[in-house]
Design brief:
This protein is of the alpha/beta class and about 240 residues long. The protein binds zinc ion (2 copies). The site of one zinc ion has 5 residues, from loops.
């Protein structure tokens, strides 16, 4: 199996260390056919992009697509799940110029003023310490992901289950209906082998993402690929894989 695209890479527009062009050059050297620049959404208090700079990213990607015709470069975003009601941190201006929108749950996405959202973050942070809180956190996170998939046209959910527990089967069912892929992330441990096996009970598709925060890690999938192989995902279920020649 060969991975031909990396949809999950960060640059200095959020808290990566390389420029867009550095990531593109790295992707070309790894033989990828497609790379997406998916910096953190503007709703993250510490390392989100400045919304006003999203257009600048679009222009730079358009320029680089001309300059490097052998690779397809996409403007993506790793948006933040902001609220249990399914709100994510993209607006119509951003949606209009984006090629793909992925979304992940992160601590540090500024909670909205709803008590429910504050609870959601608190439960997620405390979920490792109490079985009762773990279950409450799982319920709220699952509702949040499903609401967002019903509201937005998402390409993928990044590292599902990292940072806060989810009901993988319930999420995978809706993701499959809505054509949202679940990411097997190289940097965080999720999806785990067990989670992949659960998701495989549905028709959901998967993607592998490097989550590279520096150019050297663009296109590096070793650890996540091992999880896919161990869980036995058929190549046809992975959006960015093809048969190795
Ligand atoms: Zn993330
Ligand atoms: Zn990321």
């Amino acid at each position: 199996m060969k991975i031909i695209a990396d949809y999950h890479t960060h640059t200095t527009f959020s808290h990566g260390s390389g420029s867009i062009e550095d990531n593109v050059k790295a992707a070309i050297s790894k033989g990828l056919k497609t790379i997406a620049i998916s910096d953190h959404g503007p709703g993250h208090a510490f390392y989100g992009i400045k919304k006003s700079r999203y257009k600048e990213m679009r222009e730079e990607i358009d320029r680089l697509n001309e300059l490097y015709p052998d690779i397809q470069i996409l403007l993506g975003l790793e948006a933040n799940f902001m609220s249990v009601d399914g709100t994510i941190d993209v607006d119509d201006d951003m949606l209009e110029i984006a090629d793909i929108i992925m979304c992940g749950y992160h601590f540090g996405s500024s909670p909205r003023k709803l008590l429910m959202d504050l609870k959601m973050h608190a439960y997620a942070i405390l979920s490792k310490h109490s079985k009762g809180i773990y279950e409450k956190s799982k319920k709220l996170n699952t509702i949040m992901l499903i609401n967002a998939m019903n509201r937005y046209d998402l390409t993928a959910i990044t590292h599902p289950g990292a940072k806060g527990p989810i009901d993988v089967l319930a999420v995978a069912k809706v993701a499959s209906e809505k054509n949202v892929a679940l990411e097997v992330n190289a940097k965080h441990g999720h999806l785990t082998v067990e989670e992949i096996k659960i998701a495989l009970q549905t028709d959901v598709k998967f993607i592998l993402g490097s989550d590279a925060h520096d150019p050297e890690n663009v296109g590096v999938f070793t650890e996540s690929l091992n999880r896919c192989l161990e869980a036995g995902i058929p190549i046809s279920r992975i959006l960015n894989a093809e048969e190795a020649s």
